[in-house]
Amino acid sequence: MLPLLAGIASAFLVSGGSQRGHSLSPRASFARSPLMQEPVGASSPQGAALIERAREFIHSGSGFYSPADAAMFSEEFVFRGPYIGPLNKVDYIHVMNTFKIYEAVPDISPNAFGFCIDPTDCNRVWFIVRNSGTITGSIGLGNGLSFPPNGKKLQGCPETFSITFDSEKKVKLLTVGYVADRFEGNTQGTGAAVGIFKVAGLPFPPPGPLYALVTGFSNRVMKRILPDLPKTVSDPEDIPRWWPHSERGTEGYE
Questions:
Q1: How far apart are CA 190 and CA 101, in angstroms?
Q2: Which H or E element spans position 5?
């Protein structure tokens, strides 16, 4: 049963991933619209408030370390990671509500540090995460499927996160999983949910031909059989138009 479940997991986890030769419809160029006119630092009142908002979102609303708080997300929200994305708000929250990482790893902690304001975009907060916890709960896969816990300790490698806020202090862009030192921890050099899957023993193919093969199978077959499986990339027409990049899934990261 586990090999079959693992195969299903591999297929859905890359659903809608790398699709070479696919181009999105033209989008407006990504132009930053700073809330403040001058660069600000973490020690300024504006910067400190934005960093506090970022901390609040990560711990209490991101869907990773706790249930997602839809009110904290902009309707123009985009998620992007090395493997997964772009995802819009609806698709991202569905993914996080399916995986329920915070239940699979109930003691998970981001151990975040190094918060700073981007000197070229005063609405963007950067920081480093080094996830830790114990995998004592099942990882949700969608359509009633789940992957059982193995009780292993998670020791994540340091990875870069960023959060960009809109004028209402809602999250417009979330980037995660960009590993700073792949030799640390036990996630085999991967970050975010993929790193947790590695420790849990849940198969996840690396970028390359196998990834493309499983993605193709997932797109053509698995989504028809199991329509409630979470996406790892939103349909092109559903991505907010401000997002200017055409790469999908692992494209450009192989």
A1: 16
A2: helix 2-13
CA dihedral for 105, 58, 112, 164, sign (positive or negative):
positive
Alpha carbon distance 54, 130 (integer Å) = 16
Closest by CA position to 77, among listed 197, 69, 102: 69
| Cβ proximity of 47 and 117 under 8 Å | yes
CB 132 within 8 A of CB 159: no
Between 173 and 45, name the one with better pLDDT.
173
Question: Whole-angstrom Cα distance, residue 79 to residue 94?
Answer: 12
User: pTM to 2 decimals?
Assistant: 0.80
- Alpha carbon distance 70, 61 (integer Å): 8
Residue pLDDT, tens place only, 53-96: 999 999 999 999 999 999 999 999 999 998 888 999 999 999 99
Token pair recorded at residue 223: 């989504």
In sequence order, what are the residues at sequence separation of 6 or more whose Cβ sits closer than 8 angstroms to the Cβ of residue 53? 125, 165, 169
Residue 208 one-letter amino acid: G
Return the higher-pLDDT residue of 166 and 204.
166
Closest CA to 87 of 244, 247, 231: 231
